[in-house]
Amino acid sequence: MRRAAIILTLVIVVAVSGALFWWNSQRAHEAKELVLHGNVDLRQVDLAFNNSERIAAVLVQEGDRVRRGQLLARLDTSRLEPQLAQVEAQAAAQRQVVQRLRNGSRPEEIAQARANVEASKADAINARAQYERWRSAAEISAGRAVRQQDVDNAKAALGVAEAKLVVNQRALELAVAGPRKEDVAENEARLRGSEAQAALLRQQLADSQLIAPVDAVVRTRVMEAGEMASPQKAVFALAITDPKWVRVYVSEPDLGKVRSGMAAWVVVDSFPKRRFDGWIGFISPVAEFTPKSVQTEELRTSLVYEVRVFVKDPADELRLGMPASAYVSLEKTDREKIETGRSGDKETRR
Question: What region does 214 belong to: left with phi over 0, alpha with psi -120 to 50, or beta?
Fold first, then answer.
């Protein structure tokens, strides 16, 4: 009996020692890293045409990798191209009108106006001479040598010649002065309107091509060739492959242990022996209730903070919604220890 008691006591001691050793090792392990659970997340883009027109071609399929600037689809432009050609022709014509007004009158036009003035002067001198002769003859003969009607006609001809001289002189002044500033401004405004209309049509022509804005993977192909596109209907849904992150949640007691920029690594069930390097890139400033999708040991109603652990995935092996575990190292690097020591020294001096 005594021997059995001794053996039992030794077994109990060994078991307690093993338990204490295991507990201490687990405690030491927990002190070195923080384990967080969540799901892989990424950004998505819904692409739609800016114009309402029939789709002419769709060039990519679901699962295709696309590069930034790659053509994905295009619209029918059979009606848009003639409109652009018409507006560009109108703008070209208006541009010539503006150029003509800016250049003013040609030397030949001014010379012609001066010649018209000289001719009008000669006509006015001749008309005045005719009128003086008729008037003198009427006065000398007391109206018997000539008729009063002839005198009146000569006087009227003189008035017409003088008025024509004034008109040609004003025409010469206008030719020398050139066009009015208001006329130039009006035609310049019309030119700007035509150019703006042409720019709008060119932009619409460019918008008829759907271009990939970033490197991504085609997740969904919604519309096909022949369908009517519009800005409200997405043609593709793209999944952006970089950056990716694991959306995890940190409880309030552990919040002080994490900060932006801390190194981390991610493990997923699909690749249990692989470790995806990453870092903490975002910590939510607002607390929220634990989402139902996150399995934790704490109560579901406890408050947590969202944290994004950005991860490097050059081979694009992580998928949206994939369950993942993020491990955050709580051990300070040599550089952090040095910086912490310096901060402590500064506080001591103060």
Answer: beta
pLDDT digits (tens, 9 = 90+) for 40-77: 998 899 999 998 999 999 999 998 999 999 999 999 99
User: Which of 254, 241, 278, 329 is CA-nearest to residue 65?
Assistant: 241
Q: Are 307 and 280 in contact (CB under 8 A)?
A: yes
Handedness of CA 210, 216, 221, 224 (dihedral sign): positive
- Angle of the 181-207 helix axis to the 80-103 helix axis, nearest 10: 160
DSSP state of 214: S
275 close to 206: Cβ distance less than 8 angstroms:
no
Residues 6+ apart with CB under 8 A from 282: 245, 260, 306, 307, 308
**Adjacent-strand bridge partners of 75:** 55
Helix or strand holding residue 98 (H, E):
helix 80-103
DSSP 166-195: HHHHHHHHHHHH-S-HHHHHHHHHHHHHHH
At 23, list the tokens.
Answer: 């507990």
Contact predicate 75/223, CB 8 Å: no
What are the strands of the beta sheet with 55-58, ordered from one edge? 55-58, 71-75, 209-211
Q: What is the pTM of this model?
A: 0.60
Q: Tens digits of per-residue pLDDT, 93-140?
A: 999 999 888 887 778 877 888 888 888 888 888 888 887 877 787 777
What one-character-per-residue DSSP string does 290-313 give?
PPTTS--SS-TT-EEEEEEEEE--
Long-range contacts at 258-264 (CB < 8 A, ≥ 24 apart): 258/34, 258/283, 258/307, 258/328, 259/283, 262/328, 262/329, 263/328, 263/329, 264/309, 264/326, 264/327, 264/328, 264/329
Cβ atoms of 176 and 105 closer than 8 Å: yes
How far apart are alpha carbons 73 and 224 in whole angstroms? 9
